[in-house]
Specification:
alpha+beta; 956 residues; seven-stranded antiparallel beta sheet
Length: 956
């Protein structure tokens, strides 16, 4: 029988062997009797045989494996006997052979018995200590070194764990990953790994390897660590042995993936890695993770009762996910730095150029650099333009070291952007002389000059000199330059990446590629932002009841359009910001505010034209009959004023308000807010002038569906009759025309028309709170009330109209507005100020000129359609609410009971942050993902958001 070939026979269900069968084999073939317990295995059947005095492992191989393969495994065990680790011993059968043929259920199988190694499996240790990680690496390295001389015909086998065919295995088994987003992530990562490995394949050493020295197969006992399960012994790449070991360690501390450097260093001490190994290691870790994921899914399909394979799937995905998120080159740099032989002390450096520099010579390409305003950072070659300007003004220019450059940020990113510069660039007059800052050998390497010194290397791009290798002394002239990029490296002969992501700690890069400031005689190190410190300062001076998003929030310091940027120049899709209607940092708005502030900003009791222009525009866009405007600073103030208007106009106090709603934080606005998500005691603390009526929640209310309006109105009729009987007059009714706080839940058809009719019949005023959902956000309607086919008596609006500037309004009829005179005049110091009025006008102009309401309809419809499609494959998605660009994805644990998936929603939001998108939960159960981005969002960005959410839901 030929050796096994997984590609020829990829389906390997375990043979059907029960504990009774195992007991018979153990007794008849090996003379062993005792208690039989099955052990885990992916493809074989393993049983613990406890005789009362000794314990053994009976291994019954999958019939696809040839006898020679089993003999090769035994040969490996024999070769390693006496090594610096406990190794199972082979027990001969009754006939003296170490592999015997046995009949089980009419099928010929092959059995072996090994001694059982006592101890705790390393896989059961939640977090591995540094010593345990080193033990893992040392064992893997010593096993690899011990097997280097093994030659056996049974080693020439093709297993699914052979890294050399990892790409074929992933391609063959990928369809077993049922969630498309998860499958796409696995395939994409495997393809990237294969591309990185392609130029290295012929350089990687092949020998006999264990293939699975992992946490599953290391046991810690009183007599020291032991290595078990030699079922994957075969010829393979030496470095693949380490890759398997490293992959198994990742799930133990996913938040600190560089802890595996201890594993790698310990392996290297036993089985030294060469240059090709170091370049191949992380791509092989990613490929191993991909193979584990697809193989685990396949094995569960083939062998449904295989608890071992099923239980491993979760941590195999974690290991793969951690590995795929780290750029190959960056991890390689960290590995090479750890294994480098140079001393860690900072080398003594001389000057590279003799130019004197000050802060005026330094370019600011960071997120907060104003040279990059108005989106200029997106222009091709803009870094050169900034350097050119500084050079013209000051004689020369320099970039900064370890600066996270906004110019390198990627929008709609699928992975972290490499933004952090590990080198610096000089722009100087022609003929600027360049000196050797230390003695060494200068040679040309792949188009760049390398000055190789005893303690450090210096890589130079743009150096002009003869194309000859030379030994140079410190201070010697080595050439000239106009544009010169310099980068130091502590790894001999190897150039680190020019730009890196924030995935690894800054300390790693200081060790790999040190600060080159001494070369230029000026401090070039960009100040590192510390989000945790800023958060601590915030908490110490800012009332903590004013919450912040996320447990460990990024430090956001710039916005552009529908994107936000943290201090590491990482972009995030802003899917939650209905405050920023026309997008962040819109150039027209920035200029308008700057220009107006240069002229005048005061209170509205002064006479200036911008106020008239703005209120005229508001009256134009308001529903028919609403012709009079009050200007305030926020939605809360607008709601508060609207309630007072209703009470003053009617001479009554009682306001009808629906449950589950949120209207603001002022005394009045809070009084009509009953959202349990914002105030758990809301229902028991409403003042006596607020009459709560049942929320017409079409998803999980007492009556469901858009046709449930008559049922809710019938209940309202009973409540109104009771109020009438008690002689309680109604001042007004307030509700959002679309339930924003519930995540964009639409009201039943005809509901508002029915309520308005009943309220007006009793002389009450109807208030539409459009603060969240109005002002074009619904796309198909400018005002939410229009969707319900009604015209309110009073509209409140804020948020969107100021694009982040504090601006709110109450729009009503003239007679209602004039009623306020009964309580004196109205005044808001900043409401309607010249700057506020210009902000409001500019927002309306941009919305009109850039067709943002139309965009909300087009992109919103597409986004909603894609989100609803997620519900077809993710049971957690209970419904998608809303319209236009006010949407909500409600997550539930059970689609029948609609139990809120509160914890899961919080986790989704944290995971989405990692994917580069900001979304937050809302609703009484905090289980509705509120999706309300700036109206300028593109279809491409909407697709990126849904793709990310698809992956998160598939892997949560």
């Amino acid at each position: 029988m030929p050796n096994s070939d997984f590609l020829a026979q990829p389906s390997l269900p375990r043979p059907e062997v029960g504990t009774d069968d195992a007991a018979a084999v153990a007794e008849h073939a090996f003379g062993l009797t005792g208690r039989i317990t099955e052990l885990g295995s992916n493809q074989d059947r393993n049983f613990l045989v406890d005789t009362g005095t000794h314990r053994y492992v009976l291994k019954i191989a999958n019939p696809v494996f040839a006898v020679e393969e089993l003999h090769a495994q035994n040969a490996a065990l024999a070769l390693l006997a006496g090594a610096d680790a406990r190794i199972p011993a082979v027990l001969a059968a009754r006939d003296g052979d170490d592999v015997v043929a046995v009949e089980v259920r009419g099928r010929t199988l092959h059995a072996r018995v090994l001694s059982f190694l006592d101890g705790e499996p390393l896989t059961e240790v939640a977090r591995l200590s540094a010593e345990q990680l080193r033990t893992l690496g040392r064992l893997s390295g010593s096993i690899a070194a011990g097997l280097a001389g093994l030659r056996h015909p049974g080693l020439a086998r093709t297993t699914q764990w052979d890294a050399r065919i990892g790409g074929d295995v992933v391609a063959l088994l990928a369809d077993h990953v049922l969630q498309p987003a998860k499958r796409l992530a696995v395939v994409a990562a495997a393809e990237a790994a294969l591309a990185a490995l392609e130029p290295l394949r012929r350089r990687l050493r092949v020998q006999a390897i264990h293939g699975d020295v992992t946490d599953d197969n290391i046991v810690l006992g009183a007599d020291g660590p032991g290595v078990i399960d030699f079922g994957d012994v075969a010829d393979g790449w030496l470095v693949a042995e380490l890759a398997a070991t490293v992959t198994s360690a990742l799930h133990h501390q996913p938040e600190d993936p560089l802890a595996v450097l201890d594993v790698i260093e310990a392996f290297h001490a036993e089985a030294p890695l060469d240059d090709a190994d170091l370049a191949a290691l992380w791509p092989l870790v990613v490929l191993r993770g991909a193979v584990l994921v697809v193989s685990g899914e396949q094995q569960v399909v083939l062998d449904g009762d295989n608890a071992y394979a099923d239980e491993n799937r979760a941590h195999e995905w974690v290991a793969f996910d951690v590995a795929r998120r780290l750029p190959f080159g960056e991890v390689e740099a960290a590995i090479r730095s750890r294994l480098a032989t140079r001393e860690p002390e900072a080398p003594a450096l001389g000057r590279l150029i003799a130019l004197d520099s000050t802060d005026a010579h330094l370019a600011d390409l960071s997120v907060t650099g104003h040279d990059l305003d108005d989106g200029r950072w997106q222009r091709a070659g803009f870094e050169d333009a900034v350097l050119g300007r500084i050079c013209r003004e000051n004689g020369h220019a320099l970039t900064r070291y370890a600066e996270a450059r906004l110019t390198r940020a990627r929008l709609d990113r699928t992975e972290p952007s490499p933004t952090i510069a590990l080198g610096v660039t000089l722009d100087a007059p022609a003929g600027t002389v360049v000196h050797a800052p230390f003695a060494g050998e200068l040679r040309l390497v792949e188009g760049a000059w390398l000055l190789h010194g005893e303690d450090v290397d210096l890589w130079l791009d743009g150096l002009s000199r003869p194309l000859t290798t030379a030994s140079v002394d410190r201070g010697e002239v080595i050439g000239s330059a106009v544009r010169l990029t310099a980068q130091l490296s502590r790894v001999p002969g190897w150039r680190p990446p020019a730009f890196v992501t924030p995935a690894l700690p800054a300390a790693v890069w200081r060790a790999v590629s040190p600060d080159p400031s001494d070369l230029f005689g000026v401090d070039l190190a960009a100040a590192a932002a510390d989000p945790a410190d800023v958060l601590s300062r915030r908490d110490s001076s800012f009332a903590r009841v004013q919450e912040h998003y996320f447990a460990e929030p990024p430090l956001i310091e710039r916005g552009w359009g529908h994107h936000l940027f943290d201090t590491r120049a990482q972009s995030y899709l802003d899917m939650v910001n209905n405050v920023t209607q026309i997008g962040h940092a819109h150039p027209r708005l920035v200029r308008a505010v700057r220009d107006q502030w240069a002229l005048l900003n005061t209170n509205s009791r002064f006479h200036y034209e911008e106020l008239s222009r703005f209120t005229e525009r508001l009256a134009e866009v308001a529903p028919d009959g609403l012709d009079t405007v009050f200007l305030v600073n926020s939605g809360s103030e607008a709601v508060d004023l609207a309630l007072r208007l209703a009470q003053v106009h009617t001479g009554r106090r009682t306001i009808l308000a629906v449950t589950e709603a949120y209207h603001g934080w002022t005394v009045g606005a809070d009084a009509v807010s009953s959202s349990l998500g914002d105030n758990p005691r809301a229902l028991e603390t409403r003042p006596d002038w607020v009459e709560l009526i049942a929320s017409p929640n079409v998803f999980h209310g007492r009556h469901r569906g858009l046709a449930s309006g008559p049922e809710y109105l019938a209940e309202l009729d009973e409540q109104l009759a009771a109020l009438d009987a008690a002689g309680t007059g109604i001042a007004g009714f307030i509700a959002e025309p679309v339930f924003g706080n519930a995540g964009g839940l639409m009201l039943p058809d005809g509901y508002l028309a029915g309520v308005y009719e009943r309220v007006r019949a009793r002389g009450g005023v109807c208030i539409a709170d459009e603060v969240q959902v109005g002002y074009g956000r619904l796309g198909h309607y400018f005002w939410g009330s229009a969707q319900q086919g009604v015209i309110p008596d009073v509209i409140t609006v804020a948020k969107a109209m100021g694009n982040g500037h504090p601006l709110g309004a109450v729009i009503t009829r003239r007679e209602i507005a004039e009623s306020f005179a009964a309580e004196g005049s109205f005044f808001s110091s900043a409401g309607g100020s010249p700057v506020s009025a210009v902000v409001g006008l500019t927002v309306l102009d941009v919305m009109r000129d850039e067709r943002l309401q139309e965009n909300a309809a087009e992109v919103g419809d597409h986004l909603a359609s894609r989100l609803r499609a997620l519900g077809e494959r993710h049971p957690l998605v209970g419904a998608v609410h809303g319209m236009g660009l006010y949407l909500g994805v409600e997550l539930v644990l059970d689609r029948e009971t609609l139990e809120p998936a509160t914890a899961e929603a919080a986790l989704v939001c944290e995971r989405m942050l990692q994917e580069g998108a900001i979304v937050q939960p809302t609703g009484d159960g905090k289980n509705v993902l509120k999706i309300k981005p700036p109206l300028c969002i593109t279809r491409a960005s909407a697709d990126r958001f849904v793709d990310a959410l698809d992956l998160v839901l598939a892997t949560i």
